[in-house]
Amino acid sequence: MTAVAIPGLDTPPTTHSRVLSWVREVAELTTPDRVVWVDGSDEEAARINAELVESGTFVPLKGKKNSFWAASDPEDVARVEERTFICSERPEDAGPTNNWMHPDEMTATMSELYRGCMRGRTMYVIPFCMGPLDADDPKLGVEITDFAYVVASMRVMTRVGTPALAKFVDADGTEREFVPALHSVGAPLDAGQDDVAWPCSTTKYITHFPESRTIWSYGSGYGGNSLLGKKCYSLRIASVMARDEGWLAEHMLILKLISPEEKSYYVAAAFPSACGKTNLAMLQPTIPGWRVETVGDDIAWMRFGEDGRLYAVNPEFGFFGVAPGTSHKTNPVAMKTIDEGNSVFTNVALTDDGDVWWEGMSKETPAHLTDWKGRDWTPESDEPAAHPNSRFCTPIAQCPSLAPEWDDPKGVPISAILFGGRRATTVPLVNEARDWAHGVFMGATMSSEKTAAAAGKVGEVRRDPMAMLPFLGYNAADYFQHWLNIGANADAAKLPKVFYVNWFRRGDDKRFLWPGFGENARVLKWVVERIEGTAGAQETPIGMVPSAADLDIEGLSEPAEDIDASLAVDAAEWRQEIPLIDEWFDKIGDVPAPLRAELETLRSRLG
Ligand SMILES: Nc1nc2c(ncn2[C@@H]2O[C@H](COP(=O)(O)OP(=O)(O)OP(=O)(O)O)[C@@H](O)[C@H]2O)c(=O)[nH]1
Ligand SMILES: O=C([O-])CC(=O)C(=O)O
Ligand SMILES: [Mn+2]
């Protein structure tokens, strides 16, 4: 076959043979008008941003330096879990929580969709590295995309371009492995056809091939579906790598808590999407003398260090945060991070003076806005001005609370793991696991109300094990066993202690019982005191729970009844959880025996 001549295809900045052959193969299948190899430079970013302004995808903001507003297609606003697939050879390797199709069938189906899908468009080739570039075993990838918005966003979220590409071929010529990640909006252009500001397709596939460590995404430009280094690579594919190599790839923030005595503790916490990871990672403690620094807000890769402790690395380079609810009061660190500029805002509202706004940002609501659908908006409008899953995309380096060691390839040693969800009832503010297996049980059975981060009905309670339900690249039962193995292979004294938290319990009138945000530092303080053995706890059927007297609640303005109610363990409520956990375990099937035993212990303790 004669090679097709596509401008840019034949001037690659690498000699990596598989990169070259794969890029050519994709270009021949998708037939873009031109190929651009992304170098990650500032000049390139300025050019791409200008192109995005030209095409109407970006509106430059007047209120923030080098920052842009984008509005998606109204049907392309969140992750699409129904259209997300794990295409392992055997269905049982995807397991009962994932959509599955045989890789051959999916490859055939999607190849037909990809055929000619970049016609009239530019194909961008983005070399990237998840995690520090100077890691011993840098986790590399190449994303191919036909959407410049993805290039602009990947540059913020991920280490991209020339520095990453330099890692693909060693000094001695050895070519490293990389994850090929193909993305198309699925909207080819005919000659003379005008483009739209947010091209996408009604047909969507977010596909992972765990055995070949490959990602194919089609039809959506929304971050979680299109920034393939993030959830697709760093969780779904990386969880499979982690299973095979004995580490953990988790949906967790990483923070550093510094006590008044200047002792540092690193905490990792898994909460489902839109349940408070970014906020906790940037927490500003309300209690005197305590400080928090940020290491990561969404993903943690954890491996044992030589000293037998579990060390966590944040593989990302930016924050892709939920905008609504973010304010100088709730999350000043996020506000300061975005005020530095260099950010992309998607599906928020636009103020008349060219800045951004969303529900919960300020006490006063502006009298007039342009809403995320581009319509005039006033406080009388019936719909929110910003989409509930609107997002800011901003460089981590701009974060004023960033821990200096955030990009240390060695990672940070984790003292505590928190699991948490959004539950209006039943689940107390904090609950300490008796041991590792009990902690794994807490993670494996945790539940949360669905949020706007994924398409579908908001508010329904579902089990979301370790906040990984939408992000697990393999069978959930095997994943639980992997977590148990991590504990079994470790020195128990060096394992992080495990806790289960819930900031979202409500009173009769639906108010939150616990004030949350900066006040969550009080819970972190208790966690640290439990590690040090200095704080009390009550033994309950579900674990070790503090009473109000065990917590530092000095200066809290909430009524004592609310604090007590946030901590209450109601056996009757918990007995109602048991059939739901039974049902969940039946769905999982091969639940490891130690977790079945934990369930029986819980059942008998509840009586
Ligand atoms: N009541 C209450 N709300 C909170 C708390 N922490 C966060 N929230 C709200 O929960 C929503 C989501 O918070 P985030 O921190 O963005 O959640 P996330 O887990 O990072 O979400 P993803 O980025 O989608 O994974 C925001 O509207 C926050 O304002 C808290 O402690 N209490
Ligand atoms: O992946 C996304 O689209 C955004 C995100 O962080 C999540 O949903 O957890
Ligand atoms: Mn977040």
Radius of gyration: 24 Å
Number of strands: 30
Helix content: 25-40%
Characterize the largest beta sheet: strand count, sense, and whether it forms a barrel.
Answer: 9 strands, mixed
Helix and strand composition category = alpha+beta
Low-pLDDT segments: none
CATH architectural type of the largest domain: Alpha-Beta Complex
User: Strand-residue fraction?
Assistant: 15-25%
Query: How large is the count of helical segments?
Result: 16
N- to C-terminal separation?
73 Å
What is the total domain count? 3
| CATH-assigned fold name of the largest domain | Phosphoenolpyruvate Carboxykinase, domain 3
Specify the overall morphology.
globular
Which kinds of small molecule does this entry bind, naming each only once? guanosine-5'-triphosphate, oxaloacetate ion, manganese (II) ion
Average pLDDT works out at: 97
Classified by CATH, the class of the largest domain is: Alpha Beta
Subcellular location: Cytoplasm
Binding site for substrate: 79, 222-224, 273, 389-391
Pathway: Carbohydrate biosynthesis; gluconeogenesis
Enzyme class: lyase
What does this structure look like?
The chain is α+β, with helices and mostly antiparallel strands. It folds into three domains: 17-57 and 80-245, Phosphoenolpyruvate Carboxykinase, domain 1, CATH 3.40.449.10; 249-316 and 404-606, Phosphoenolpyruvate Carboxykinase, domain 3 (Alpha-Beta Complex); 319-398, Phosphoenolpyruvate Carboxykinase, domain 2 (Beta Complex), CATH 2.170.8. Strands 11, 12, 13, 14, 15, 16, 24, 25 and 28 form a nine-stranded mixed sheet that branches. Strands 1, 4, 5, 6, 7, 8, 9 and 10 form an eight-stranded mixed sheet that branches. The protein has a five-stranded mixed sheet with strand order 2-3-18-23-17, covered by helices on one side. A hairpin with a 5-residue loop joins β21 (369-370) and β22. α15 (571-588) packs antiparallel against α16. The longest helix has 18 residues, at 571-588. The protein is globular, with a radius of gyration of 24 Å. The N and C termini lie far apart (73 Å). The relative contact order is 0.12. The structure holds guanosine-5'-triphosphate, oxaloacetate ion and manganese (II) ion. The site of guanosine-5'-triphosphate has 22 residues, from α9 and β17. One of its GO terms (biological process) is propionate catabolic process. Its cofactor is Mn(2+). Mn(2+) binds at residues 231, 251, 298.
